[in-house]
Amino acid sequence: MPQFFLNKRLILLLVSIIILVALIGFSLREREELTVPEQFLKDATGWIQNVFSKPQSYVKGVFENIKDLQNTYSENKELKSRLDGLAKLESDVQQLKKENDELREILDKKDSLSAYSPIQATVIGRNPDRWHELLIINKGKVNGIEQNMAVVSSNGFIIGKVKSTQQFTSTIQLLTAMDPTNRISAEIQGTDSYFGTIEGYDVERELLELKRIPYDAKIQKEQTVVTSGLGGIFPKGLPIGKVVDTEPDEFGLNQTAYVKPGANFYDIQNVMVVKRDMMQPNLSDMVDDEEEEL
Amino acid sequence: MRKYLLPLLFILFFILESLFVQTLPAEVFNSERILAPRFLMIVILFMTLYGHRDQGLIYGLVFGLLFDVVYTEIIGIYLFMFPLIAYIASKLMRILQSNIVVVSVISILSIVLLELGVYEMNYLINVTNMDFSLFLNQRLFPTIVLNVAFIIIFAYPLKRIFEKYAASLRED
């Protein structure tokens, strides 16, 4: 008799392992959208998290204020020194902006890769197991958020993209997550700009890897890296970080630059979801055109 | 009323994990170390060991699924790990005496088991490429320290809650 029970347990274990593998396989597929029950569960917990997030952000705010007070003096000193340069910079920006608008008008070019409209959102949850680096925000499809939109932290640096959306909440995948599909077309700004793609995160050194830069590119430290807008979804010119180090890749055909991200990936309260104004042409249209040419 | 109190407690701890990660700035410790709260696992274990075993396993299953759907978007890992570990712990308790210290030690061992299991599975499906020694130093040890602190604070209240619940079940 005990032998029989042992077998029953063994079968249960085996069946559950099969179910486990099937479920993981199901959820690892490239999914356009989550299933309806999943969306419902996420929205329902999102509602509860929303209730808790207000007192949480208040408590955190109090502690941060105290921390801020401690270094007010040194901060004030530094800000004052920067203030002198600011007035000139401001007038320069104004002038350049105006000039840019005029030139655009002459060229009759209205759309720009760098134009975008932001949607403000608050972070209401974060993945506690720290493997997946996902955030949950309190805006969803109702507010016009779509999959793959860029997400920017409150200080303007890019932190990730929208992984999935529900009616009232959405999930953000941070740049630090290891996901081969998480790629951003980026540009190193300088006298010559070089293009590459952000393709991963070095956990040990806490640096982003900017790969596929031409081998002859001369890259200096402290050069700024921004999105290039060539990927089709992200707008142009969102800052990512600064170059720390470069090294040739394994075959010597390209270079890899290590980029120190400008955003803090641990302390995120408010984010901005960025919707690009310029529409991406339909892929099928482009394919058709090419065929005609041939 | 009593009936709904227990699911509420579980939901509270479920939300608390996310709130904890969000509130705690990693710089407080050292940003190189990753602290993962496993409060829900501990509560499920105490439920299984002090409250009702089968109900504890069902709570493990339900909240494992919820954890997968809401936090990781990969269904299966926690759905499988929570009940499995609760079951192993309940089997272990048959041999050992149910003393609060013993239960606490078992909970810590269970968290180690959970972390290892989740790491192995994530490694398998290529969510992470962290190597094992890095995993030990960067994740496992800080996580154990954090959860030991949680157990020290919450072990006794949790034991009281679930023992009361078990007593009320016996009365019915």
How do you describe this structure in short?
The complex is a heterodimer of chains A (294) and B (172). By secondary structure, chain A is of the alpha+beta class.
Largest beta-sheet details of chain B: none
Silhouette of chain B: globular
Number of helices of chain A: 4
Reported for the largest beta sheet of chain A, the result is:
6 strands, antiparallel, barrel
Integer-rounded radius of gyration of chain A: 24 Å
What proportion of the residues of chain B form beta strands (DSSP E)? under 5%
If helices are DSSP runs of H or I spanning 4 or more residues, what is the number of helices of chain B? 6
Q: Please state the CA-atom Rg of chain B, rounded to the nearest Å.
A: 16 Å
Which class of secondary structure composition applies to the elements of chain A? alpha+beta
Report the largest inter-chain contact: A-B, 44 and 45 residues
Beta percentage of chain A is 25-35%
**What strand order characterises the main sheet of chain A?**
1-2-5-4-3-12
Structural class of chain B: mainly alpha
Net shape of chain A: globular
CATH architecture label name of the domain at 184-261 in chain A: Beta Barrel
Coiled coil (chain A): 69-113
Keywords (chain A): Cell shape, Coiled coil
GO cellular component, one term (chain A): plasma membrane
Protein name (chain A): Cell shape-determining protein MreC
